[in-house]
Amino acid sequence: MAMTHDVLGFTVGTAAAGVRDGTPSRTDVALIASDRICAAAGVFTTNQVIAAPCVVTRRHLEQGRLRGIDVNSGNANACTGEQGERHAVMMARAAAQRIGCDPYEVAVASTGVIGVPLPVERIMKAVKGIGLRPGEWSDVAKAIMTTDTKPKLLGVELPLRAGTVHVRGVAKGAGMIHPNMATMLAFVMTDADVEVSALRHFVRHASERTFNAISVDGDTSTNDTLLVLANGASGVKPEGDELAQFANVLEGVCETLAREIVADGEGVTKVFEVSIRGAETAEDARRAARTVTTSSLVKTAIHGSDPNWGRILAAAGRSGAKVDQTHASVRIGEVVVFAAGAPRPLDRDAVRRVFDRKEIPIEVDLGVGAETARAWGTDLSEEYVRINADYTT
Amino acid sequence: MAMTHDVLGFTVGTAAAGVRDGTPSRTDVALIASDRICAAAGVFTTNQVIAAPCVVTRRHLEQGRLRGIDVNSGNANACTGEQGERHAVMMARAAAQRIGCDPYEVAVASTGVIGVPLPVERIMKAVKGIGLRPGEWSDVAKAIMTTDTKPKLLGVELPLRAGTVHVRGVAKGAGMIHPNMATMLAFVMTDADVEVSALRHFVRHASERTFNAISVDGDTSTNDTLLVLANGASGVKPEGDELAQFANVLEGVCETLAREIVADGEGVTKVFEVSIRGAETAEDARRAARTVTTSSLVKTAIHGSDPNWGRILAAAGRSGAKVDQTHASVRIGEVVVFAAGAPRPLDRDAVRRVFDRKEIPIEVDLGVGAETARAWGTDLSEEYVRINADYTT
Questions:
Q1: What percentage of chain B has pLDDT greater than the value 90?
Q2: Looking at residue A15, what DSSP letter applies?
Q3: Contact criterion met (CB below 8 Å) for B241 and B162
Q4: Count of beta carbons in the 10 Å neighbourhood of residue B102
Q5: Which of A146, A183, A225, A378 is flagged as catalytic?
Q6: What residues of chain B lie within 8 A of the CB of A217, using their CB?
Q7: Where are the alpha helices (DSSP H) in B144-230?
Q8: Given an 8 Å threshold on Cβ–Cβ distance, is A308 in contact with B80?
Q9: How far is A356 from chain B (nearest CA, A)?
Q10: pTM
Q11: What is the pLDDT of residues A199-215, one digit of tens each?
Q12: Which of B301, B314, B323 shows the shortest C-beta gap to A221?
């Protein structure tokens, strides 16, 4: 799946608008445009305190058709009262003017400080003057960064019988982190020709298994946004088996971006993957996986390289999932630490080698059924506390 | 409500059985006995990975009648396979022999390391030799401590028309902490004459509003137990208004013990109380209160004395409770930091004074209804991470 050509029919541009404090020291506005109308689907934060750009974009997505995405970093346009929505619409209008389309065909996204009015005039001016070119996706990835330490992007191609389709993903970090909260933004563009209804289904399914299965600190931002645009510029329309193949590639792109986001969380020194097996229902598996990844006691144990099966099992046990402790088992890497209701003698060297890995695999068998789920989490470090306690409003 | 006489008809005793490692260096077994049968009710951990003593005590409580409680620290008898239940029953039998009652009239509770077989012979021997005397409740509170830094107990008396009834509470700390997990144990004894059905109702209600509303690290232990015993030795049977008064006193005792447990959590430097107002439903209020107290970002902000309304509001917003952000408000102590959808200018000195208090009051109005709830939480400190990461199994 190496990239030879990029997604066809898309152009991008960035600008330094000085969103944060009026000083244009870094790029902080990006525009993504398609030369034709795209089938589009999205998933937004479930937080009841939802930011204005999410409200506006959700409305624009009702038709399932977009021409572009207008995004800024430096200011989240969240908790900004009634003017927030007005400003988000103004951003969409400026982008529509630049692209040459209807404002309802533009999605907007913002990330950065909350509770501060958006400097919308500066953003509009920058957007109107942006130069659009194909292929500069790393510029987009950089412009949307806030506390991320590296840009997150990836491109894959999928050869199908009628030709090759391309999928491009760009994202920025999760975790409601310094200064007030950061946001997960992820945009996926493809030149495959896909119906809106199918795309909506794929996006819901993929986000549930990827972006919704990661956690840095258990908090959900007010601005989280995933958008997927399919413009059909490849002339290839996957159907039947090939549509399933396309859905898998789409999920793979989401998973890669999601794991990059986890690994780049602030104060993160270790990442772990929890695989649940033997659950009675898929919902039980999902719950158990996510409860283990968000448990403070598991996260501190991971930080201390402690194979603490007691905390892992207890987290699964309180998740609401059914657990049969006499048939449950816990494995850290290849090392079985708990089986058949009792702890196993510990091979400390083998465990130590697992904790030295880039991503620590933890498998918990609940011992009651056949359903599975995965989730990804991060350790809880003194550094995390320091970063999040030191900021003063 | 000062204490002049203690609960009538109860005697207690403690012993040093060397539960942890065979060395009897501290008291680690306690027996609570009533001279007559008590109406009894309890609440146990909802963790699916439930410890053997909880399973056995739940069974013994089905009749709603107990004569005593046999408890040990140093070993939780959790994740100990099939022999765990056998050992818990053996504890009950030894206590029944000492008290002179049926084993089904004894509740057992254990707290300490998990995954290690209970040294039940040592405990049985100690229980059989225990001397029972009235009034030595602080000995009981000390014997059940694990990582607690101080014993937790309190006694209140309630003068009623037909005479005075007494309520005595003893508890140990929450938080699944070093070495593997600690446990919340709380025992409340009264000499009031109360029907089992009423007592069960009061206990469920009180625990929901007190012990279930506290969180040190969001994890639920495998051994959590609350037991309430009413032996009627005062000869006073509260009815009507006086029964409601008794229920209030019972809840007050539970709330005091619960707040002491929070304040004594390991690595805790600050405690905060979250009051939710303006919720649409009681369930919404409850959820919002607990989500704010368990948010890592709120907990680190509290640690850093940061009046971070953004994190508080976002935690309430992701709890599932309905929030109208244009009518929501956040108050820290007396200082309104967010109102009518927008942040307020900050009086830093006033806020600093609030953060210097022993318990920091935070009030969040969700702006949609009239329901309220409270919950208590702790800050997240570097010390907490250090304590919980340093332990190696």
A1: 68
A2: E
A3: no
A4: 15
A5: A183
A6: 296-297
A7: 196-209
A8: no
A9: 15
A10: 0.80
A11: 999 999 999 888 888 87
A12: B314
